[in-house]
Design brief:
- The protein is of the alpha/beta class and 234 residues long.
- It folds into two domains: 1-28 and 39-127, Rossmann fold (3-Layer(aba) Sandwich); 152-226, no CATH class.
- It contains eleven helices and five strands.
- Strands 3-2-1-4-5 form a five-stranded parallel sheet, with helices on both faces.
- Strand 1 (57-63), helix 5 (69-81) and strand 2 (86-92) form a beta-alpha-beta unit.
- Helix 2 runs antiparallel to helix 5 and helix 2 runs antiparallel to helix 6.
- The longest helix is centred in the middle third of the chain and has 20 residues, at 96-115.
- The structure holds S-adenosylmethionine (SAM).
- The site of S-adenosylmethionine (SAM) has 24 residues, from helix 5 and helix 7.
């Protein structure tokens, strides 16, 4: 770790290095089946540059975190703009092998933040993001909403692959589904439900959600609670 600290100045640099190394060790089949394509640092920095800090007490959710490069970039940008007092980071990842690598990145990030006097409170959930938050789809009263943990920032490069309508995740998220669902849109729709008022969703996704009948139900639900303040087409 001492040598790595010398080589990589920022946690996001370390996360990118670890991610490349891990991606080299996995098959194309694994990548395709788990929708695992890591974000390059150039893109994660670009995404996170757009954030506007609103408070120095911050909660972040990174569903489908991989090596947590997006969270690292986001935290670096926020730390360069404000003095963070409280920081809570929640990560979801289903690939148990990559989680071993994510832990190294989190250790690095924790040390980096400690030098700045920031104590990182982190939880890594080795669960399916959709199944673990299924109750968000059944809640409809304001009273129930209070029971959820909600976030100031939700950042994600979600998995992309089609699932069948009989998949438990499609059943959980049925209000978003019409035709054959793609898991990325469920990540987006669910995240919108887990966002605090005035919070920010920062997602890199395909653009297929923006048009067509298949995503009509998704758009109706999603744009009921969020509005787009900026998009970039890659
Ligand atoms: C497109 S990759 C992005 C990884 C990372 N966010 C990044 O930007 O480099 C999506 C990640 O989500 C994970 N994943 C797939 N299905 C998931 C699920 N249902 N719940 C949580 N994570 C999932 C994959 O293992 C993969 O690491």
């Amino acid at each position: 770790m001492i040598e790595l600290n010398k080589k990589y100045k920022l946690p996001s640099e370390f996360a990118e290095f670890i991610g490349l190394d891990y991606a080299n060790s996995t098959s194309n089949k694994h990548k395709k089946e788990s929708g695992q394509f890591f974000t390059p640092k150039l893109i994660s920095d670009f995404m996170d540059d757009l954030t506007r800090p609103k408070s120095n007490k911050i909660s972040i959710l990174d569903p489908g975190c991989g090596t947590a490069i997006l969270s690292c970039s986001l935290i670096e940008k926020l730390a360069s703009k404000i003095e963070i007092k409280k920081l809570r980071l929640t990560l979801y990842e289903t690939d148990l092998n990559v989680i071993k690598e994510t832990k190294k990145v989190i250790e690095y990030l924790t040390k980096w933040l400690r030098k700045k006097g920031v104590n990182l409170n982190v939880i890594i959930k080795r669960q399916d993001f959709i199944i673990d938050n299924s109750s968000a789809f059944t809640t409809n009263s304001l009273f129930d909403l209070k029971e959820f943990t909600k976030f100031d920032y939700i950042i994600s490069n979600p998995p992309y692959f089609k699932i069948s309508k009989a998949d438990i995740r499609a059943i959980i998220a049925k209000e978003l589904i019409y035709g054959q669902p793609n898991i990325y849109s469920i990540f987006m729709g669910l995240s919108a439900k887990l966002l605090k008022p005035n919070g920010e969703l920062i997602f890199i996704t395909p653009r297929s959600f923006a048009a067509g009948n298949y995503f009509k139900a998704f758009r109706q639900s999603f744009f009921n609670s969020v509005s787009i303040s900026r998009y970039t087409y890659f």
